[in-house]
Amino acid sequence: MPQVRPPDSGTKVASPHRGGLRRSLVRALPVSPAVILLLLFLAGPIGYCAYIAFTDLQLTGQAQSSFVGFDNFRAAFEDEAFLNAVWLTLVFTVLSSLVGQNTLGLALAALMQRASKPVRTVVGGIVVTAWVLPEVVAGFLLYAFFRREGTLNAILDWLHLPSQNWLFTLPILAVSFANVWRGTAFSMLVYSAALNEIPKEITEAAEVDGAGGWRRMWHITLPMIRRSIGTNLMLNTLQTLSVFGLIWVMTRGGPSGKSQTLPLFMYEQAFQKSMIGYGTAVALLLLVVGSLFSVVYMRLLRTEV
Fold first, then answer.
1. Nearest to 242 by CA among 169, 179, 151, 161
2. In 3D, which of 188, 180, 168 has the Cα closest to residue 93?
3. Which of 89, 248, 290, 295 shows its CA 20 to 30 Å from the CA of 235?
4. What is the pLDDT averaged over residues 267-294?
5. 208 contacts 279 by C-beta, under 8 angstroms
6. Half-sphere exposure of 92 (CA within 13 A, CB side)
7. In this predicted model, what pLDDT tens digit does every residue of 103-135 receive, in sequence order?
8. Nearest CA to 141 among 169, 108, 177?
9. Is the pLDDT reported for residue 68 higher than 70?
C-alpha cells in the first residue's frame, strides 16, 4: 500500500480565504473605474450637500459659515410655505405620475396592440414627440395652451362653454396635465414591451373561456406585468419629484405658491433668497422622500406573489 508523505514543513499552503479574496479583487477590477467615478461625481457631491444642510451658508453678506445642527430642518417643518410645497409635491406626483402617466400609458399600450399599423405609427409618433421635446419648450407650449388667451379657452368659447384663466385658478392641475402630456410616452413604451412578452395562448384561452376584456386585464395582464408596473412607477415618481423647468416656465410656482413644489421652493430659498444652507436642507428632505418612494416600489418588485 503506498504511503502518503506528509507535506514538508517548509512548504506554504495557500489559504482558501486568501485565494477567494484574490479572485474577488480580480473580478472587481473591470468595474473599479465606474465605482471611482460614482464616488467622485455622485457620492461626493451628495455628501458635501449633506454637510451644507447643517450649516447657515449664504450666497451673499456672509464671511464664513457655521455649523447650526438641525436648525434648518426645524425651520423647514415650522415654515408654512415648506409644508404647502410638500403637499403640492405629493398632489403633483400622484396626479401626473401615479394616476396620469401610469394609467394613460397602460391604456395607450393596450389599445395600440389592437390598432392597425398606420394608427400605431401616428399615435406613437405624436406621443414620443411630446416626450423628446426639451422641458422648456414643452413648458412654453403648455403655457400657450392654458393661458387666458390660449388654445384651451378658444376651444371652450367655440363650444360655448365657460372659460377661465387656468394658470391662475387651477395651476397645480394645469402643470400636472402638462407633465402627463410630456411624460406618458415612457410609460407607453414600457408597457408595450411588457404586453408583448405575454404569451398569446394565455389570453386566447381566457377569451375562449368567456372572459371579457376587463376580466382579462385584471386577472391575467396586470399580474403578469406586475414587475414592469413597479419599475415604471418607481422611475416615473423619481422623475416627477424632480420636475422644475416645466413648472417654472408655466407658473413659476404661482400664483401665491399654489403650484410651488419642493424643487421650486428649494430654488427660491437657495438662489433667490441666498440661503444655501436652508435650501440644501430642503433638497436633502426631497432626497429622503424619493428614497421612501423607492423603498415602497422595491417591495413591489419582489418575485414572490
1. 179
2. 180
3. 248
4. 89
5. no
6. 31
7. 999 888 888 888 777 878 888 888 888 888 888
8. 177
9. yes
Q: In this predicted structure, what is the pLDDT of residue 304?
A: 45
Q: What is the CA radius of gyration of the chain?
A: 27
Single-letter amino acid code for the residue at 197: E
Predicted pLDDT at 23: 77
Better-scored residue on pLDDT, 37 or 4: 37
The residue among 279, 248, 230 whose CA lies nearest residue 98 is 230
Please name the amino acid found at residue 19: G
Torsion of CA 124, 130, 133, 135, to 10 degrees: -150
Cell 424632480 found at: 242
Instruction: Match 401616428 to its residue by C-alpha cell.
Output: 122
Alpha-carbon distance of 300 to 227, in angstroms, equals 7
Q: Which of 37-41, 61-65, 174-178, 233-237 has the lowest mean pLDDT?
A: 61-65
Please give the torsion angle defined by the CA atoms of residues 85, 90, 93 and 98, in that order, rounded to the nearest 10 degrees. Answer: 180
Q: Compute the C-alpha angle 97/251/135, nearest 5°.
A: 55
Instruction: Give the mean pLDDT of 9-36.
Output: 69
Distance from CA of residue 250 to its chain's centroid?
A: 20
Taking alpha carbons only, the member of 147, 238, 139, 131 closest to residue 182 is 131
C-alpha cell at 143: 403655457
Identify which has the larger pLDDT, 25 or 170.
170
The Cα–Cα gap between 236 and 106 comes to 13
Which of 217, 163, 209 is closest to 191 using CA atoms? 217
Sign of the torsion formed by the C-alpha atoms of 154, 156, 161 and 162: negative
Beta bridge partners of 155: none
- E strands along the chain, which residues? none
The answer to whether the CB of 88 falls within 8 A of the CB of 79 is no
In angstroms, the first-to-last Cα distance of the chain is: 60
